[in-house]
Write a structure and sequence with these properties.
- Helices cover 69% and strands 1% of the residues.
- It has 337 residues and is mostly helical.
- The protein has a two-stranded parallel sheet.
- Strand 1, helix 3 (53-64) and strand 2 form a beta-alpha-beta unit.
- Helix 4 (77-104) packs across helix 5 (111-124).
- It starts with 8 loop residues before the first helix and ends with a helix.
Length: 337
C-alpha cells in the first residue's frame, strides 16, 4: 500500500513536472499551508469528447501543466478512463496504419486496394509528425516504388500526391523522400506521362520537394526538370499549366536558376500559353516572363505576344480593382518587346 504522500500510478505514468515548483519552507501555521496549497493547485482541463489522436495528446500535455509555480491535480477516475481510451485508440490507429503500409508494400495488391491505402495515408500525412514518421514505418520506399513502377495511372497519381502532401513544408520528409529519388520519378512523369492527372501530381510533388531546398532545385535542373516544366506548360491541361507556373515563379524568385530558365525555350512556352489563357494563367504568365528575358524570343513570337499583351492591357484597364500587379507586368513586357 502506498504511503499518503506517494504519487499515484497515473502520476508516475505522466512523469514528473518538467518545471518543478521551488521548495517552500515549512510553516507551523496550518491555515497558511492549506491556503498556499490551494492557490498553487491547477485543476486538469476536462477531456474532449471523442478525441482525435492530436486532441488526446494536446489534452494530456495541458493536464500535466506547464507553469513553474503550478502543481497538477492528480487525475480522477473519469480522466484516467479517458486516457486509457485514448491510448487504446492510438493503438488501434497504429494497427490500421500498419495495414495500409502492408497493402502498399504488397506487389500483388490490386489497384483499388492500393488507391484506398494511399488515400488514407495521404490524409494522415497532412499531420506533419505523421509525415515525418513515414520513413520510420518503412513506408517511403513503397510509396516511391508505386509512383515509379505501377502501370495503373490512378495509382501513380495518388502515390505522387502522397509524396507532395508529406513533403510540403516538411524538411525531414523532403529529405526522406529525396533519399529514394522521388524527384527523378516526378521529372520522369512530367516529361513522359500522357495522363493529365499524373502530370499534375508530378509537378506538385516536384514543387513540394524543392521548396526551401536549394540543392534539390539544382538537382531538378540537372535531371532535365526545366525542359519538363516547359513541356507541361505547352501540353493541354489548364490546372497543370497553372501549377507549373507557380513552381516556375518560385524557381525564378528564390533560386539561382533564372539564367538557366531564360536560356531554355521556357519564355516561348509561357508566351504561347498566354495566347488563349484564363485569368489564372494571366496572373502568373506575365510575372514569369518579366523575370526571364523575353527578348530571347524569336521575332515572330514577339509580334504575337505583343498583340496578346496589348489586348490584355486594354481589358485590365477597364477593371477597377485587383489588377495592379498584373497590369504592371503586362506594361513592363510591352516595354521590352
Amino acid at each position: 500500500m502506498s504511503s499518503p504522500g506517494a504519487p499515484s500510478s497515473m502520476q508516475l505514468a505522466l512523469g514528473p513536472n518538467p518545471h518543478p515548483s521551488p521548495s517552500v519552507p515549512e510553516t507551523t501555521n496550518p491555515t497558511s499551508t492549506s491556503s498556499a496549497t490551494t492557490a498553487s493547485t491547477v485543476h486538469a482541463p476536462r477531456p474532449p469528447a471523442a478525441p482525435t489522436l492530436q486532441e488526446a495528446l494536446r489534452w494530456l500535455i495541458e493536464a500535466k501543466g506547464d507553469q513553474p509555480t503550478q502543481a497538477t491535480q492528480p487525475l480522477n477516475e473519469a480522466d484516467e478512463q479517458f486516457l486509457r481510451g485514448a491510448l487504446g485508440a492510438m493503438q488501434g490507429n497504429t494497427e490500421e496504419t500498419k495495414g495500409f503500409i502492408r497493402t502498399i508494400s504488397d506487389p500483388s495488391a490490386d489497384p483499388d486496394a492500393l488507391c484506398e491505402a494511399l488515400d488514407c495515408l495521404l490524409e494522415l500525412s497532412e499531420d506533419i509528425d505523421f509525415a515525418i514518421a513515414l520513413e520510420h514505418m518503412n513506408a517511403v520506399a513503397p510509396i516511391v516504388r508505386l509512383a515509379r513502377e505501377h502501370e495503373d495511372t490512378e495509382v501513380q497519381s495518388r502515390a505522387l500526391d502522397l509524396v507532395a502532401t508529406a513533403a510540403q513544408n516538411n524538411p525531414q520528409a523532403q529529405r526522406a523522400f529525396q533519399s529514394h529519388n522521388s524527384l527523378t520519378v516526378a521529372v520522369h512523369h512530367m516529361k513522359t506521362s500522357s495522363d493529365i492527372n499524373v502530370r499534375l501530381k508530378a509537378v506538385r510533388a516536384a514543387s513540394s520537394l524543392v521548396r526551401d531546398q536549394p540543392a534539390y532545385a539544382g538537382e531538378l535542373a540537372q535531371l532535365g526538370g526545366l525542359a519538363a516544366l516547359a513541356h507541361c506548360i505547352r501540353e493541354p491541361g489548364e490546372r497543370v499549366r497553372v501549377k507549373t507556373l507557380h513552381l516556375l515563379k518560385y524557381l525564378l524568385d528564390e533560386t539561382p536558376l533564372k539564367a538557366s530558365l531564360a536560356a531554355t525555350d521556357m519564355p516561348a512556352a509561357v508566351a504561347s500559353a498566354l495566347t488563349d489563357a484564363s485569368n489564372d494563367l494571366w496572373e502568373l504568365g506575365p510575372a514569369c516572363l518579366v523575370r526571364m528575358a523575353p527578348m530571347a524570343l524569336v521575332p515572330a513570337a514577339h509580334s504575337a505576344l505583343r498583340d496578346t499583351l496589348a489586348a490584355r492591357a486594354g481589358l485590365l484597364a477597364e477593371q477597377a480593382d485587383g489588377v495592379g500587379a498584373e497590369l504592371a507586368d503586362v506594361h513592363a513586357l510591352l516595354a521590352q518587346l
